[in-house]
Amino acid sequence: MLSRVADNLYWFGRYLQRAENTARLVNVHAHLLLDIPRKLELGWAPLVHILGAGQDFESRHGECGETNVVRFLLLDPDNPASIASSLHRAREILRTVRDCAPREAWEHLNDLHMFVQERGEKALPRAKRLEFLNSVIDHALLIYGLLASNMSRDVGFQFLRLGTNLEQADMTTRIMDVRSSSLIQPQAAEDLSPFQNIQWMSVLRSLEAYQMYRRHVRTRVTGASVLRFLLQNREFPRSVMFCLTTAGSTLPRLPANRAVERALERTRGVVQDADMEKLVESGLHELLDEIQIGLGQVHEALTAAYFRTAA
Amino acid sequence: MSIDWRLYRCESTYDELFAAAGRPRPAAQRLVDYLGSLPAPELAERRLAAELAIKAMGITFTVYSEGRNVDRAWPFDLIPRTIARREWQRTEAGLKQRAAALNHFIQDVYGEARIVRDKVFPAELLKESANFRAQCRGMKPKNGVWAHICGSDLVRDADGTLYVLEDNLRVPSGVSYMVENRMVTKRVFPELFETTTILPVDDYPAQLSDMLSAMSPRKADAPTVVLLTPGIYNSAYFEHCWLAQQMGIELVEGTDLFVGEDDCCYMRTVYGPQRVDVIYRRIDDLFLDPEAFRPDSVLGVRGLMRAWLKGKVALVNAPGAGVADDKVVYTYVPAMIEYYLGEDPILPNVPSWLCLDEKQRSHVLANMDKLVVKPANESGGYGMLVGPASTKAQRDKFKELIRDNPRNYMAQPTLALSTAPTLTDDAIEPRHLDLRPFILSRGDSAYVTTGGLTRVAMVKGSLVVNSSQGGGSKDTWVVEEPEAG
């Protein structure tokens, strides 16, 4: 396995996952806005912040109106996290590693890319958007399914899984971070609590986790149990712990590297030791920051160990 | 409403499918009958299906236009070009003969140069050859093979004679499209394959893989073979990926390889360096190694020539093989066949005039409006003058070019390239075409593709078939002729 190819498969996994998560995020946010009373003024700004693109957005688009934000998230070629640019990059990468991935995956990614290019502009208004985003999600899952069913579990596949899982862990923490920052405000008055629950539910829905959460928790939705589910659950595939564990399970298949193992272990420790009851009160943002830094360190370690190897 | 073949006018030159208007050649009979039986809407539907298949299969080529690289869908014409098997067998033998002579020639010019000493080939042509690499002198690659892969362009004149137009020995491309065209035809016209015996073309990647492995300098069971590409911005990148994928070998870029202190070539992998035995390189000589050739090349691998000269790694095609891929050297190929093999050439060259020779040059200068003038070392149809279609200003410019550098120019009569029926927007009309078969040489044996890539000039009357200049392609069928009766 060439270092460059491993690097590309890793990033391909990340971009595909990113496109899918962004599509879910926009969908769920639109739903949420319909249920929230106007005076909360949630608006579309949180979505821009989830992706850490606040400054870039403001300098180029100004106000965080629905049309601006949706275009920014779906189609903006200059926003590296937009669906269009994630897919564009995924496609460029797959072009360079086309010989490693099954041909059908390339055909479907090509289709998806063309679909977004051709239909994206028309899908900005609410009425058309849901269907469009659902198609993007379906298509991304189809590609992932093709890879999962048709690709040999060779070293290349392990890098793809690493990318997919680290990106999901990252997106999960980002979604939690922004969603919760607006609802763990101390000024949140008693009478807004029903809406708080709606917001916690939307956090779950952004991650397609509501149903699985319900099966697992069975009590009413509370902040602490949602946080526990999304951070520590070992069975839900979008929980941070699950992603980190899956990422860890690829390592025995790769050339041994202590730095990567250590970085991953450290990050798992941070997630494992978190106290949910306290976090609902305060410190969630700091914890999520710490996890993200941990994920960044895993990425750095992978890069040094496998992608930028010296002669 | 369906195709009415009686309306197909093909009298102006030789047509590959029709012997005369309304009278298909035997090899094309079933195809013509079948197409004639399709109602017009059905044909339109199949055509759309082919376009969609090409888009979905991601069969593309890259063109440089308006300052950037654009990925275009591969242009494909639905109606296949047929070749009778008996004719093909003779052509195949002719191509193998040619490739053998070319390899002898290359080995000779980098060695004793007997052909120059014996005055069959003029010394001054070598001295001024842009593709002669002095660094290769004295080298003898495994089995004496330099041009392992050769793409020779064949054209047919009005009288039906098949000529070799040129031999591409540097990094010939197009073979992936040959196989993909067949895939598309199978998807769109599956019925045809039930009634006609069409010889398969998809053996090529396996043959190529065997040949590459056989070139390994080490006696290992499974040599490490890689394909070296200049990267995704190269116009043939699709093909590089395709071939690597078909052969299951690594597709590498220059930065993935390095030459170690032991002069062996390695690739950078997640396990650390891994020794490479054979490099199928799709990078031009001059970019191959900044140490030996262009120092500014970022595509190549420093020290690669050193590794090759020491026999630590095989390069396919060998550096310097392009010395025989020169439109002036081309004119000597029939002489090479006689000189090295003691045989008569099976396939003729297109009659050519060399501007180097004073008498021939005056003929060229006096007949510019009737001739095609070509520079020795351009490819892709660039830099040439098509006399009958030229303006006086263009001819004057070429006269000057020829007088300045006669060695660099040759001229040929304008052939009335053969045609085949091609779908246009509203009809079926004859369009000119050529054929590029590929020959694999390993020293002990040779392989020729079944047919090859047919390129067709989509513009009415045009003779330019290059895909970078608006050319299209057709599936090429070598057909077992039905028994008479």
CATH topology annotation of the domain at 87-166 and 201-351 in chain B:
Rossmann fold
What does the radius of gyration of chain A come to?
19 Å
User: Low-confidence parts of chain B lasting 5 or more residues at pLDDT below 50?
Assistant: none
Q: Strand fraction band of chain A?
A: under 5%
List the domain count of chain A as a whole number.
Answer: 2
Q: Could you walk me through the main structural features you see in this protein, from its secondary elements to its overall organization?
A:
Chain A is built from 15 helices and no strands. Chain A is mainly alpha-helical and 311 residues long. In chain A, helix 1 packs parallel to helix 8, helix 8 runs antiparallel to helix 15 and helix 13 runs antiparallel to helix 15. The model of chain A has no long low-confidence stretch (mean pLDDT 87). Helices cover 29% and strands 24% of the residues of chain B. At the A-B interface, helix 1, helix 5 and helix 6 of A face helix 9, strand 9 and strand 11 of B.
